[in-house]
Write a structure and sequence with these properties.
With 770 residues, this protein is of the alpha+beta class. The protein has 19 helices and 36 strands.
Length: 770
């Protein structure tokens, strides 16, 4: 955003001349940077007005336009421009030793090379007196829009003038000084040819009908100011609406009243309605869009851009001036849906001060009357809708302010500073009751906001620089070391790539998976509707990554350690750390048991024994309930592992194995101290047993049974698993168990006895030895 210092000076009473105000530019930049916002760049602007003249367009001769300058008493032949109007005045650049040409926005210190529009001047002012109202020098400030996105009041010259007045000790002119009191302006709070059918999207709506002189061009001094802030001048009436917006922060729009049929109404668009915009583009509306319409159809996309059919032109003789206080949510929706971001929508979506709507309309009426774009006439403003909400008082104590700032502050400085930004302050016995002004209602809401205002107004440089004291003690680094060990094992040992996601669900992916998430906390004011709910599981985003990366990669092995949030029935939000990973290979699919082997290596690293149990409660919809297990430690569930449901693998060449664990629990777990155990002096014997078991019987249950047969059985591992459809719920499992006797070498007879006991135990538990 760009600002003109002389434009700012219209709102300030500095008690000095213009040259002195311009000389204060470096001090203004420094003070704004220390307290409000950093000025990215400021530059002095100037140009020689003697190089310009107003010339009346006469005719076209071949490839040249013929114009006559009363000031120079001569005819100019200039390279043609598109669409000139006979009798209209245009600004000509005719410097010495230069070919005469049409002046551009760039000549006026703007950033565009666009030709300037036709001007409104009289034969008298065309002699050169129009230059007396133009400012040949100025200072322009450039500000990063992202730096003021939280301050809706700073999106206008008046908003910055308030800040400068407070910081420089100058007087801020009252808004009534910018309005022509001689003009008869009345306000009626009733509906007359105006309706608001979408009150949720439009809190206030105001219109006024004005008779205007046709073929009115732009105003020279106004186009100069607009060009300096990189706003393209278009015509007298449109320039006045833009000037009012940049001046007061209130977006306005003018309709050609003769092109409006019946009453003007604010309503929801009908699905499929078409609106051709001022720039010629056509947008297809939805029922979620808010429009200003007449009896025939939409006239404009409310608060964003006007329609071509009702736009003003050189033949316009009557206009309807519209101003409104639209909902920020409605504006953001329209901007996102149609990809339209305009100067008006930027201000409307930040939150326009509802109390300034009337002043905005009056400021426009003053401009068009003073510039003789309209004849003197009574002006009746029709306003309907709710009155803007009153700011709520904020209570805080002086001790609270000093404690938060970390320094002593004089009460007089607090009161003076808050008065300077427009707050009403009541002080009694060390306690304040602060009522923010209407233009700060969106960002001054809690006591800490007031403290911040006090600190920046009195100056951060005045605060004593004292480092905060902190008493430190011994800290436990076990959790940090454990996290590093886990990441190192997953990344280097198991060849998984770590990923980090936004902590929000991707609503588009959820819709694609036809997934309804329960227990997810939703943000009240999300940056995007695409990312509005906090994640309850890391796996959803990881599965999405598999779909994205499987297009180019055969193998996708990812893990993430992140925070999840679950909303309980009592509306309390529980936050916890989770560890999740996914394994996918297009040509060598992962099975439940191959994935389990990967996960077991992690548990071995942590020295934690995990039980793999059949789920007793419904699981999340992305799990394949026939091939997953609940992981328990000491009968406490700490996660889930298994295969992802086939419906979630649609479009993939293979299946996905996944696991999600309670990482907080793993970090709290303290493994038992291991006692030294001497290595066996005698050789071990390994034997296999192949079983046909019911599919409901878990591997862990069978492993526990085998280990309990004989104390010499030290280790049991699954080495093969197989099933057939004709087995009807049964599967074949092959285990390998290792036997060791620490007192002597085991004989063949010992091995046969242990094998017989294992077979007998398996049969007692319903297994068939194959």
């Amino acid at each position: 955003m760009k600002l003109s210092l002389l434009w700012l000076a219209d709102h300030l009473d500095a008690g000095c001349d213009v040259d002195t105000v311009l000389a204060c530019a470096p001090d203004i930049v420094r003070r704004l940077g220390e307290s409000t916002v950093e000025i990215e760049q400021y530059e002095s602007l100037s140009y020689d007005l003697t190089c310009y003249t107003m010339a009346r367009y006469e005719k076209r001769e071949g490839e040249m336009d013929v114009l006559y300058s009363i000031e120079d008493q001569r005819v100019y032949h200039i390279a043609v421009r598109s669409g000139p109007t006979v009798g209209a005045w245009y600004l000509i650049y005719r410097a010495e030793h230069a070919e005469p040409r049409y002046a551009t926005v760039g000549d006026m210190n703007g950033g565009q090379g666009t030709l300037l529009p036709a001007y409104y001047v009289t034969d008298i002012t065309a002699h050169g007196s129009w230059k007396s109202r133009c400012e040949p020098s100025d200072v322009r400030f450039s500000i990063d829009n992202k730096a003021i996105t939280h301050r809706a009041d700073l999106w206008s010259h008046r908003g910055f003038a308030r800040e400068i007045a407070c910081l420089m000790g100058w007087r801020l002119r009252d808004v009534t000084e910018l309005i022509n009191d001689d003009q008869a302006m009345t306000v009626q709070h009733q509906q007359h040819n105006v309706e608001v059918l979408q009150s949720a999207a439009c809190r206030q709506f105001a219109t006024t009908h004005l008779a205007v002189y046709p073929k009115m061009g732009s105003i020279p001094w106004m186009t100069l100011r607009l060009a300096r802030i990189d706003s393209r001048p278009l015509s007298g009436l449109v320039d006045c609406t833009n000037y009012t917006m940049f001046d007061m922060g209130q977006p306005l729009h003018v309709f050609d009243a003769d092109q409006v049929e019946g009453s003007v109404r604010v309503r929801s668009a009908k699905s499929g309605e078409k609106l051709r915009l001022l720039d010629g583009a056509t947008c297809t509306l939805t029922i979620s869009d808010c429009v200003v319409a007449d009896e025939r159809g939409p006239l404009s996309l409310a608060g964003i851009k006007g329609g071509e059919s009702s736009g003003v032109s050189g033949s316009t003789s009557h206009i309807i001036l519209e101003g409104a206080h639209f909902s920020s949510d409605a504006i953001r929706h329209g901007v996102r849906t149609h990809g339209l971001r305009t100067d008006a929508s930027v201000r409307a979506e930040k939150g326009v001060d509802g109390a300034q709507l009337l002043f905005g309309l009056k400021r426009f009426c003053t401009l068009v009357l003073n510039e003789q774009l309209i004849a003197p006439q009574a002006c009746t403003i029709m306003m309907i809708g709710k009155e803007p909400g009153r700011p709520q008082p904020i209570a805080l104590t002086h001790a609270f302010i000093e404690r938060k700032i970390g320094n002593t502050v004089e009460p007089a400085s607090v009161i003076r500073g808050l008065h300077g930004i427009g707050c009403t302050v009541e002080c009694q016995e060390g306690a304040y009751r602060v009522t923010p002004p209407s233009w700060r209602i969106t960002d001054l809401r809690i006591p800490e906001d007031i403290v911040e205002e006090v600190a920046r107004i009195i100056g951060y440089a005045t605060l004593q620089q004292r480092l905060p004291q902190r008493i430190t003690g011994l800290t436990q680094a076990v959790g940090v070391q454990m996290t590093r060990a886990v990441k190192r094992h997953l990344a280097y040992g198991l060849h998984l790539y770590e990923v980090v996601h936004y902590p929000f669900y991707d609503e588009e992916f959820l819709q694609r998976m036809n997934l309804t998430i329960e227990g997810a906390a939703e943000l009240k004011n999300p940056v995007s509707l695409q990312w509005r709910r906090l994640i309850t599981s890391l796996l959803v985003q990881l599965v999405k990554d598999v779909h994205v990366n499987s297009v180019d990669e055969k193998s996708v092995r990812l893990f993430e350690i992140g925070t999840t949030w679950n909303l309980h029935a009592d509306r309390s939000l529980v936050e916890r750390k989770s560890l999740a990973f996914v394994l996918y290979h297009a040509e060598q699919p992962f099975t439940f048991y191959s994935g389990k082997t990967v996960l077991l290596s992690l548990f071995e690293l942590l020295s934690i024994h995990i039980s793999w149990t059949i789920p007793s409660k419904p699981l999340e919809p992305w799990w394949d309930v026939t091939q997953c297990a609940v992981l328990e430690h000491n009968k406490i569930p700490i996660g889930t592992a298994g295969m992802i449901a086939a419906s979630w693998c649609t479009g993939l060449s293979s299946t996905i194995f996944a696991a999600e664990l309670d990482f907080d629990y793993l970090m709290r777990y303290k493994p038992p101290q291991r006692a030294y155990k001497a290595q066996a002096k005698y050789p071990s014997i390994k034997m296999d047993v192949s079983l046909l078991v019911d599919s409901t019987c878990t591997v862990e249950q069978l492993e526990r049974v085998i280990v309990s047969v004989d104390e010499r059985i030290e280790r049991v591992e699954l080495i093969d698993m197989f099933s057939k459809p004709e087995w009807h719920g049964q599967r074949s499992l092959t285990f390998r168990y290792t036997c060791t006797d620490h007192t002597r070498t085991m004989t063949r007879h010992d091995a046969e006895m242990i094998m017989q006991q294992v077979h007998k135990s398996m049969e007692e538990h319903g297994a068939k030895v194959r």
